[in-house]
Amino acid sequence: MKRRLSILGSTGSIGRAALAVAARQPERFEVVALAAGNQWQLLVEQIRDFRPALVSVSADSSAQEIRRALGDECPSILSGSEGLEAVATFEPADIVVSSLTGGVGVRPTYAAVCAGKDVALANKEAIVVAGEIISREAARRGTRLLPVDSEISAIWQCLQAGRKQDVRRILLTASGGPFRSMPAEAFATITPERALAHPTWVMGQKVTIDSATLMNKGFEILEVRWLFDIPLDKIEVLIHHQSVIHSLVEYEDGSVIAQLGIPDMTLPIQYALTFPERADTGRKPLSLADVGQLTFGRPDVARFPALALAREATRIGGTMPAVLSGADEVAVHAFLSGRLPFAGIPRLVEDTMARHTPVPHPTLDDALSAESWARETASSLLPGDAQKGPS
């Protein structure tokens, strides 16, 4: 029986890759609903290729353009937050691919879980902002949170080699980003263009900057904490420049299980959609002989304090991770706009966190209110005319 997919963020890098997986295996997948931002021309192409019954876009104006482009072949179109939730809860869907960027993905991801859908989860912010809430609801409803991030997928795969109670350590690997060897005093020279040149992965702008600051790895600590119910003191980060080992799990007997592969998102996306089955991805297989060497090191939290901030937010819990996420989004936007230096990203996040009184065991509204507060606070702390958050 085919698995029917709803994709949130279909015009983004993960959404496009998920559609490529579906197109390569039409006997396995049917795309029934798509949600995108305002790249309506690309969405028109996707509608023609996959014939979904329901689509959603951010703005009414984009919906009107799609109706004009498709005429009588146009599916049902919605817009805004109502449209996102409709795609997330679309009754025919078996799996919802949550690949929106930023806090906008929190509510539709939660809605999908509440509707009893399995969620292939690529939207880190959903777990960073509301991990306790979403994981609890998924457990209550018996739905699955299927990780799409390469490192989180690797841990998921490695955990199948043993019992969770026998786990000694989780070793999250990180490439270290483009500035892993740069001295801190040179950070003032980092431009957005240099920060967007990731050495091993091709990703969206926000994720790429988060990878450069190591905030992305901090977000993954929260993902491990809530997706797998692993305590913080068992989660470590390991710098691995080649991005061939995507993460490792160490068990009590000393066995260390690793998942290896070429740095390509196709495998984790496909595995989330086909689990527990495996299928040929059509990609070039990993050749360790060609790789030659695999190297490792410890992260330098003095140069990359975002990692320590994320650990602290995880330790404090409650609404503090939501504040971490909201402040980081403002800081990254300000850096990309040339209004904040690279080293100012974690400083702004830290200053925002210091002003927050966390709410323990929050509701979804509590978490989203904290994220909104963090955006406003971080924006107010930006220097001079930079006091404007992401639109």
Descriptive overview:
The chain is 45% helix and 15% strand. The protein is built from 16 helices and eleven strands. The chain has a seven-stranded parallel beta sheet with strand order 4-3-2-1-5-6-7, sandwiched between helices. Helix 6 (124-141) packs antiparallel against helix 14, helix 10 packs parallel to helix 13 (306-316) and helix 15 (344-354) packs across helix 16.
Topology:
Elements: E1 3-8, H1 13-24, E2 29-35, H2 40-50, E3 54-57, H3 60-70, E4 76-79, H4 80-88, E5 95-98, H5 106-114, E6 118-121, H6 124-141, E7 145-147, H7 150-159, E8 167-174, H8 192-195, H9 205-213, H10 215-227, E9 235-239, E10 245-251, E11 256-260, H11 266-274, H12 288-291, H13 306-316, H14 320-336, H15 344-354, H16 364-381
Helix pairs in contact: 2-3, 4-5, 5-6, 6-10, 6-14, 10-13, 13-14, 14-15, 14-16, 15-16
Largest sheet: 7 strands, parallel
Order of helices and strands: EHEHEHEHEHEHEHEHHHEEEHHHHHH
Strand element count: 11
CATH architecture of the domain at 3-147: 3-Layer(aba) Sandwich
Strand content: 5-15%
Question: Can you list the strand order of the major beta sheet?
Answer: 4-3-2-1-5-6-7
Poorly predicted ranges:
385-391
Helical stretch tally = 16
Mean pLDDT over the residues: 95
